[in-house]
Write a structure and sequence with these properties.
globular, 105 residues, 3 helices, metal ion binding, alpha+beta, 16% helix, metal-binding, iron, Ubiquitin-like (UB roll), binds FE2/S2 (inorganic) cluster
C-alpha cells in the first residue's frame, strides 16, 4: 500500500507499507520530516500529526473522540487533522496522500 507524504515546502516522499501498518510506522521508519511518533503509536503524544489530503478524507474516515482530543496538543489542528499512528494501511488506501505539518507540538 503506497502512501505519499508531502511537506509544507512541497517535497513528496512515496513509501510502500504493509496492510495493518500505520502511516506513522512507515513514515517514521523512513525518516520522513516531522513524523516523530514519540509514543510509539498509542495515540498519546500527537507528534505524528498529519493533514489528510482532501481527496482522501472520506476514505480515511474521522478520528475517534479520544484521538480528536489528543490532537489539541498538535500544532495547527484542523478539520483534516489525524494522528498518523491511528491510520492503518488497508488496500482501499492505496495511493493515500497526507501532508506533514510545519512542526510537531
Ligand atoms: Fe504518538 Fe501517534 S505516535 S500519537
Amino acid at each position: 500500500v503506497h502512501v505519499t507524504f508531502i511537506t509544507p515546502s512541497g517535497v513528496a516522499t512515496t513509501l510502500d507499507g504493509d496492510v495493518g501498518q500505520s502511516v506513522m510506522d512507515i513514515g517514521k521508519r523512513a525518516g520522513v520530516e516531522n513524523i516523530i511518533g514519540e509514543c510509539g503509536g498509542s495515540a498519546a503524544c500527537a507528534t505524528c500529526h498529519v493533514h489528510v489530503d482532501p481527496a482522501w478524507i472520506d476514505l480515511v474516515g474521522p478520528p475517534s473522540d479520544d484521538e480528536w482530543d489528543m490532537l489539541d496538543f498538535a500544532h495547527g489542528k484542523r478539520a483534516d487533522s489525524r494522528l498518523s499512528c491511528q491510520i492503518r494501511l488497508r488496500p482501499a488506501l492505496e495511493g493515500l496522500i497526507v501532508h506533514t505539518p510545519e512542526r510537531q507540538g
